[in-house]
Amino acid sequence: MLYKAVIILVIAFALAAGSLPLAAQTEAAKAQPEAAKAQTEAAKAQPEGVPALLVKANQAYAAKDYLNFRITLESLHRLRPNNSQYMYQLVIAHALLNEKSQAYDLMLRMQRQGLAYDFTATDDTLNIRGTEVFDYVNDLMKGASAPVGESETVFTLPEEIKLPEAISWDESRQKFLVGTLSEGQIFAVGKDGSVAELLKADAVNGLWGIFDILVDPPRNRLWVSSASLPGVARYEPADRGRSGLFEFNLETLELIRRYPVPVDGNPHILGNMTLGPGGDVFVADRALPLVYSKPASEDKLKPILALRDMISQRGLAMTPDGRLLYVADREMGIMVVDLEGRQARLLGVPESLNLAGIDGLYRKDNALFIIQNGIQPQRVMRLQLDASGTKVENVGPLAVAQPEFDFPSFGTLVGEDLYYFASSQGIGKTGSEKPVSVLRTPLNVGTDLVQPDMQQFLKQQEELHKQRATDNKDN
Fold it and tell me: Which residue spans within 378-453 are E strands per DSSP?
């Protein structure tokens, strides 16, 4: 179900290229002083209750205070309804209290969302085992870890390319452009795996680690989002939290202009980008729930949206007419922003869809394509939208639990295929890292998700609910 999010529209902006009308320019000028305030409010909007609740849950479990363990997990689940780990732990809490019907209800919801868990892996579930209901749903959830769909390894990056984070298709070169965090490099990579370095972070261009690459052939532009944090290229403690958007000539790779995020005392990480029909660039901040715009008609970067409900923004996508902007969040799902109507809502999804752990988000032919690595099983999904673009009508798994998957992250659309990183190399990891491969998955592979017949399960659940109601009445 869709609900209206708390949203601050910091600046009025045009949907098409060209100058803003005088009235809009005046409104934008008045709104400029509010940008810093919006950033501060966005920072405060990060839910402070989650870390404290996690500590409380661990303490309650250790003390065998299972009632408070369950109450705390219920609070966490309300704050983070897509987080499957909290759902898993809540089932455990119900089991420890011998609350069979509540545990089975949640297991059923998890199963319908395609989540893969085995609740016989812990003795904490002994109280809810030994029934046909438990065995049936648990077997279905175990089966969800089996590979589904299609993926093909196109090439593997050389071992010396460390921490690849961004990939985009460059039609002008007929190459993939791959950006790295470790050295701030951009490589041109052919489908045959041939590699050539195009750019590298240095004092002249000012780049740090590269978080995303956006190619705009019609305007001969290459856009790069970059940020300074420990473990990335050219990191200096004095630069920590700095970030910016960089504009290059696509053909010559000459630096045209830098657009730094204004220094406001908050850390920033400009990440994923998308391009509007008029050449406007939109970029999400991974550190704060802010979305920035670099209008085609202006030479500055400015915050336009503060989405207070968002926690950890990643992928961006946009409708061809530039009216709807989709913002993926690793915890909260996908926000649909109506840029014209200045409203935002969470994408309407069926109960059978869990949108946790999204990194990559892409749009084509009125469908969204997502790469989920913060979920069990890791997967690539097709979400067919309704005519309004604000609701999911059908869900299709394209690639699920593939053998190559080890935290698949970001990708790029090329024709009727999605190309994406099969794995991720984390900042700060020690020891050898496996080279990262790029996979190809067709956009039209697979079929829409069909739920198994649950009539027998539902009948048994109804009997348990009746028994629970009777027990409560007697007490």
Answer: 379-385, 392-400, 411-414, 417-421, 437-442
pLDDT level of residue 409 (50, 70, 90 thresholds): very high
Residue 407 sits at φ, ψ, to 5 deg, of 70, 60
Q: Identify which of 423, 408, 400, 336 has the alpha carbon closest to the alpha carbon of residue 371.
A: 408
Residues in the chain: 475
Secondary structure E strands in 263-378: 270-275, 281-285, 290-294, 302-307, 313-318, 324-329, 333-338, 343-346, 358-364, 367-372
Q: Look at residue 23 in the predicted model and tell me its pLDDT.
A: 29
Q: Which residue from 284, 382, 267, 377 is spatially nearest to 326, judged by alpha carbons? A: 284
Q: Is the pLDDT of residue 10 over 70?
A: no
Tell me the two tokens of residue 107: 């297991």
**Tokens found for residue 449:** 């998700």
Q: Which domains does the chain have, with CATH numbers?
A: 49-146+452-474 (1.25.40), 149-442 (2.120.10.30)
pTM: 0.85
Among residues 435, 385, 456, the alpha carbon closest in space to that of 156 is found at: 435
Please state, in angstroms and rounded to a whole number, the distance separating the CA atoms of residues 117 and 353.
16
